[in-house]
């Protein structure tokens, strides 16, 4: 077999550490041992993986290709190692969840609690680093489930709606719009709109409300933390759009009010996505079953 895991790890550490010496240290190899391993591979593929460039090195086309594959393959192999170790230690496995839904954590906590009670030996992790690349993470086995309000349907992955909610405009208690039952898009043209740091083409307040009416807010600002976002709204520093259930949970501690977006409102679902080859996984199926049972 030409390619070994060591080759992939060398390329990954070379990119991470920036030099051959540092990569060897990170892998607990001597520099000569690392060089010998690489030269042996280079002799088999008939060309170099990198060339000297001043005090550093520069990857060749073959080196760039192998680095790209290392980033794809190594996380999957490491997940296999982790799962096999858990089996050897009589654990039931692990479940990694990726989040593409900023305000969904209160909902997720209600799912996680009974899930952990049902599977006391299962290790569960929630990853935010895949907020803008959840599908790739799912295909690469970096995560087992993807939580998103905007599923991208692709072969090999199945999404199911598990929780419905209404998206509403949130305003402060003394805001001029406070007494309205609903708002139309033109009402926001003089407002500061606060959102999470998500591309506009994935923000429902733009795509389903403002842009179809050819309207834009006076200013668009982004904030990462839900708590800070709601504090800004309560202080009349702007308005935002959030699930009604989240606003109603917070309205007893902050002077804010939800308003319907348009006369009919905007309704969404939280979806869970899983790989089709995990359909028979008891962990995945149990998580789906619990998620569907949660209401606010």
Unreliable sequence segments: none
Shape: elongated
The largest pleated sheet is described as: 10 strands, mixed
What is the number of strand segments? 12
What amount of the residues lies in strands? Answer: 15-25%
* Overall SS class: alpha/beta
The N- and C-terminal alpha carbons lie at a distance of 55 Å
Share of helical residues: 25-40%
Look at the structure and give the mean pLDDT.
90
Q: What is the ordering of alpha helices and beta strands?
A: HHHEEHEHEHEEEEHEHEHEEH
Structure annotation, total helices: 10
How much is the radius of gyration in Å?
Answer: 25 Å
Describe the protein in words.
The protein has 10 helices and 12 strands. By secondary structure, it is of the alpha/beta class. Strands 3, 4, 5, 6, 7, 8, 9, 10, 11 and 12 form a 10-stranded mixed beta sheet that branches. A two-stranded antiparallel sheet has the order 1-2. It is elongated and about 75 Å long. The mean pLDDT is 90.
Descriptive tags:
296 residues, ten-stranded mixed sheet, two-stranded antiparallel ribbon, 10 helices, elongated
Task: Give a brief rundown of this model.
It contains 10 helices and 12 strands. By secondary structure, the chain is of the alpha/beta class. The strands form 2 sheets. Strands 3, 4, 5, 6, 7, 8, 9, 10, 11 and 12 form a 10-stranded mixed sheet that branches. A two-stranded antiparallel sheet has the order 1-2.
